[in-house]
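Customer ticket, subject: "Can you confirm the structure for Pyruvate dehydrogenase (Acetyl-transferring) E1 component subunit alpha?"

Message body: Hello, I'm evaluating your service for our small team and ran a test protein. I'd like someone to confirm that this is what the system normally returns, since I don't have a reference to compare against.
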Amino acid sequence: MTIQEMPGSTAYRPSPPPAWQPRTDPAPLLPDASPYRVLGTGAAAGADPALLRRLYAELVRGRRYNAQATALTRQGRLAVYPSSTGQEACEVAAALVLQEQDWLFPSYRDTLAVVARGLDPVQALTLLRGDWHTGYDPREARIAPLCTPLATQLPHAVGLAHAARLKGDDVVALAMVGDGGTSEGDFHEALNFAAVWQAPVVFLVQNNGFAISVPLAKQTAAPSLAHKAVGYGMPGRLVDGNDAAALHQVLGEAVERARRGGGPTLVEAITYRMEAHTNADDATRYRGDAEVDAWRDHDPIALLERELTARGLLDEDGVREAAEAAEAMAADLRARMNADPVLDPMDLFTHVYAERTGQLREQEAQLRAELEAEADVEDGR
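Agent reply: Thanks for trying us out. I re-ran your input and got the following:
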């Protein structure tokens, strides 16, 4: 028996609205009929030149980062690398719209967003090399660990954002997920809780067309993934995911809305994964070269470069400077990743729990005994 059911109870009993009565007008929540764009439209004239140049430099750096990480995988320096080539605009914009105190909740494909947020590229790749549970301190970086299970980071983002609001902290959480993650239960639960609690969180869905090999049409019959926002009671925004300026504007507006107490927003960015899902995937089995080539004409770097060149904001020297800075980053990453790390197997048990459980202590003792036995054999004892 609950308190409200007890005889004589004076506990508060809220009166819900009738089930047929909408709790909010759905019209303002609906996304646009087509993805919002800035580059190549009249809206581009109002874009900040300094911001556009910074976005360009970050995109060029991000493309080179993706290429270098992919090469490291082929060389055996990484166990796996999910490339975000073609999706750099989503990655960069997500990082740049956040303030220092805000939190980023990335998925496994979002190492570029983590680097654009300011994290050391080597630390961003440590998990994918298999050296550590995660390669950085989440609290210090304000970046949650790279999340491999689909969409499980979304409820965590909502929880952190809700807790920050209750404490009165000026914090917004931005959670990134792929279109495949929207088919998971965690996606539904996160959006539902976020809307009910009016948590200061922004969900960025990078719709790159495929959940590994499953096309979007086999995942949902909705008009768009952004339309799903309406069912939870939050605004849905549909944006060109290769238009860095449009993404920065839409995500920036969503972040500031959340910061003002306006609640969550679901942003769907239409983009494309130019490379395979990971180095373990053969993308030619489920898509053709013609489809990939068509998207090359809508490359995020080329779109922004055209805009900057047309407005006289970028010349050959500027292109060369961006490329040289990106190459310097890649050379440093290559050199540091080619150095064999010094690892302690006992670190497996570090930072798992604040206080180690009995089972964890038992496993730790077992591993220590095995390592000591191996050392004795090597010493000939």
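A couple of notes from the result: Residues 35 and 258 are 21 Å apart (CA to CA). The chain is about 45% helix and 10% strand. Feel free to reply with more questions.
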